[in-house]
Amino acid sequence: MKLTRAGGAYIAITLLFGFAAVNTGNNLLFLVVSALLGFMAVSGVMGWLNIRDLSLAVRFADEIYDGQETFASLRVENRKRVMTSFLLRIEIGGAWIDFPMVGRRTVETGVLPVTFRGRGEKRGVSAVVSSPFPINFFVRSRSVYLDGRCIVFPRPAPCEGGPASPGRRWRGERRSLQRGFEGEVEKIAGYTGTEPLKLIHWRLSARHGDLKVKELTSSAADPLMIDISRLPGRSIEEALSCGAWLVNRGIRANQPVGLIAGETLIAPAASRPHRLKLLTVLALHGSH
């Protein structure tokens, strides 16, 4: 509980009237002091109830990097039957979000920025719920443990090259979901006027009476196999940061990327779930 400036002034006035009542024996002053103390007690009870019976839950993004700011979703449920909670501030790791009002038996959600230090699995965070309600004499607060789990990836750092394991080679073209002009035939479609003449399917065009073209898939880049033991860097953290950068750069350029981590081998692919899987392996490497 933190005393505000208004609360300090109120206590000073109450003490002043109390000393005056004791020194003079004036019954009216005693009544004034009693009213001031009673008002303080009632406000204290209301403030205490205001931050009670609140259920909090946090949900983190699926892509979090060491030392980089991201956003977390915070859910606040007021489980009180008859009382609305006012002027709530919820703080997590130095960042906070305000909820002016959370009605009884209702749920409010919001987002707040969070930053994690150090890669690996993070389990649970501590949140502080505070409020100056009802009249800003005291800021009452309490700590709440939130059971939120997330994986913090190594912070990507640009590096040269794409080290591959010399003992394994991945050959051949891989199909891309993007349209191209040199891949395999994906489907036959109508001519739009932008396709090269070499893509026109003359036989089908003659049969249907209008021009038909072949839609081809583009050829993805050659697969890249990243061997953690061969990544450049003065430390394992620098090597893993290089690996995260190579994974992101390759897959975002539609290049299949695979990973070798000790005895673990992950075949190349180029989807977002695959990218997050590779980053998770990098984040947890050496943590067991």
CATH architecture of the largest domain: Sandwich
What proportion of the residues form beta strands (DSSP E)? Answer: 35-45%
| Principal-axes shape call | elongated
Uncertain regions: pLDDT < 50 for 5+ in a row?
162-183
Proportion in helices:
25-40%
Most strands sheet: 6 strands, mixed
CATH class descriptor name of the largest domain: Mainly Beta
How would you state the average pLDDT, rounded? 84
What is the CATH homology-level superfamily of the largest domain? Immunoglobulins
Separation, N- and C-terminal Cα atoms: 41 Å
Number of helices: 5
Secondary structural class: alpha+beta
* CATH overall fold name of the largest domain: Immunoglobulin-like
Give your account of this protein's structure.
- It is a single chain.
- This protein is of the alpha+beta class.
- The chain has 3 domains: 1-153, Immunoglobulins (Immunoglobulin-like), CATH 2.60.40.10; 155-174 and 221-288, no CATH class; 175-219, no CATH class.
- It is built from 5 helices and 14 strands.
- The strands form 4 sheets. Strands 1, 3, 5, 6, 8 and 9 form a 6-stranded mixed beta sheet that branches. A 3-stranded antiparallel beta sheet has the order 2-4-7, with no helix packed on it. It has a 3-stranded mixed beta sheet with strand order 12-13-14, with helices on one face.
- The two termini are 41 Å apart.
